[in-house]
Amino acid sequence: MRVVDSIAAHGEIVAEAPARVMHFESDADSLDYENNRRLAEQAKEYRVVVSLFDRHLWVLNGDDTLRSAPAAVAMDSTLAFAGHVWKFDTPRGKRKVLDKSENPLWIPPDWHYAEVAKENHLALSKLPLKGSVKIANGRKLQVRNQQVGIIVPDSGWVPLPLDEEVVFDDTLYMPPLGTKNRRIYGELGSYRLDLGDGYLIHGTPEESTVGDAVTHGCVRLKEEDISWLYANVPNGTSVYIY
């Protein structure tokens, strides 16, 4: 890959950007990259192209570039915790925009809670949708009306905040799917494009991460870029990832 010089406004070279080296796990991995890169380069229809190595996204029509945007891409790492293993990458290949949505809701997968628990040195436990879980001082955790709450002796059931993790006694309790505590608005920005299998192109409240390899598999864009894609990329559009 070519190293691009950084030029100051007065025209002097102020720094040379560090070169990133492309690593492949095997010959098959290298071949997969080359095949998908070639597939993207040969396409001519109205399309979205994502380069995971360059951390960049383009919208193209024939030979015309309609949009060029930096992107945050998958961190390409593995999380092992509590007997489970999650791989955070984005598979190369051709996909399609299956659906689009505004102000999307994020339902955190199990790996989110495992990641938080590991980072904070907490145990991890699942809350049941029915029944209760005993915690210290005679208290219990219980789901009522799709919300996690705490039962305190002589005080009854009190709902817990929806925007905080459920942590008691050095344990992070994972809210059941379908509960209000398992819903987060704003994490995916203003818009998302669904590519299937849990992979999305979406916005982010942390725009400083755009351009880095930090996601768990999705492609993040800045607000101005995801807004443009939402308005100009229809469902059914091909998406090439290499």
Task: Name its key features.
242 residues; mainly beta; L,D-transpeptidase catalytic domain-like; 2 domains; five-stranded mixed beta sheet; four-stranded mixed beta sheet; 24 strands; 15% helix; disordered N terminus
Structural summary, described in words:
The chain is mainly beta. The protein has 2 domains: 19-104 and 186-241, Beta Barrel (L,D-transpeptidase catalytic domain-like); 110-181, no CATH class. Helix content is 15%, strand content 40%. It has 3 helices and 24 strands. It has helices at 27-42, 110-119, 223-232, and strands at 5-7, 13-16, 47-51, 56-61, 64-70, 73-74, 77-81, 84-88, 93-96, 99-102, 105-106, 123-126, 132-134, 140-144, 147-152, 156-159, 166-168, 171-174, 184-185, 191-196, 199-202, 213-215, 219-220, 238-241. The strands form 8 sheets. The chain has a 5-stranded mixed beta sheet with strand order 5-4-3-24-9, with helices on both faces. Strands 10-20-21-23 form a 4-stranded mixed beta sheet, with helices on one face. The chain has a 4-stranded antiparallel beta sheet with strand order 13-14-15-16, with no helix packed on it. A hairpin with a 2-residue loop joins strand 20 (191-196) and strand 21. The chain is elongated.
